[in-house]
Amino acid sequence: MITKALTGAARGFGRASRVFLYLAIGTERMARFREGVELMWGDPWPTADDGGSLLPVERELFERFIPPRSRVLVIGCGGGRDLIALEALGHTMTGVEPSPSAMEMCDTAVREQGRRATLVRDFFEDARVSGPFDAIVFSYFCYSYVPESARRIACLRKAAGLLAPGGRVFVSYVVMGGPHPMLPRLARLSAALTGCDWRVEPGDAVSLRREGMPRPCFFLEHVFTGVEILEEIDAAGMEVVHHRTAADYPWIICAAP
User: Fold this and answer.
1) What pTM does this model have?
2) Domain range summary for the chain, segments of one domain joined by +
3) In terms of C-beta distances under 8 Å and separation of at least 24 residues, what long-range contacts does 148-151 make, across chains too?
4) Is pLDDT above 50 for 212?
5) Architecture of domain 2-255
6) Is the dihedral of CA 17, 19, 23, 26 positive or negative?
7) Residue pLDDT, tens place only, 97-144
8) 111 by DSSP, 3-state: which?
């Protein structure tokens, strides 16, 4: 009986903690949320000097849809995992990354491995990047980490404007692990009450990262429904070229009409 009661209490406290977590993120100003993003993404994937750091599906899609010797922009390049691998395939690389520590790792890896790349430390929304590019890659789910549908659509429009004729945009996105529908509503309520300058939206999964952080930071990933990613691409004025709908790592490739 005691074990059952304590287990039930643990579940109850767990649910309560989720409620308070969403209420809390609803009060977080966008500038401070972005500071947390910069802190969190300082521990990127390891890089490899043989180009083997692309995941199999990435290698398949990039080799199929990116022509040889292309000009490629990687958004959210982190420590250079896919950027360095693409450079090793003969492409001319540019990377954008908001985390200063991740950018430092990427710069070090590029130089130590004898590679070349133009690196820009900023959020893509604000980054000054010179195109045109034959391919623009939103690296490993980073499109889902952009809060608010309007901001993501603006990112796609900016990417479309940087494409060379015939260029393509590559987007992977999260489809599993969505929150209970009530939780984003609570976040929106607390945001409205406190006058916060952005809003959590339905499908936004929120957690709190503490380990190794100078302060706790909110982590947000948007979990897409089956048609939502298509709606955002359409709203950005782009057309789908290829859609890989696998549940573990879906990708969509689009182009300007």
Assistant:
1) 0.92
2) 2-255
3) 148/198, 148/199, 148/201, 149/201, 149/222, 149/232, 151/125
4) yes
5) 3-Layer(aba) Sandwich (3.40)
6) positive
7) 999 999 999 999 999 999 999 999 999 999 999 889 999 999 999 999
8) helix
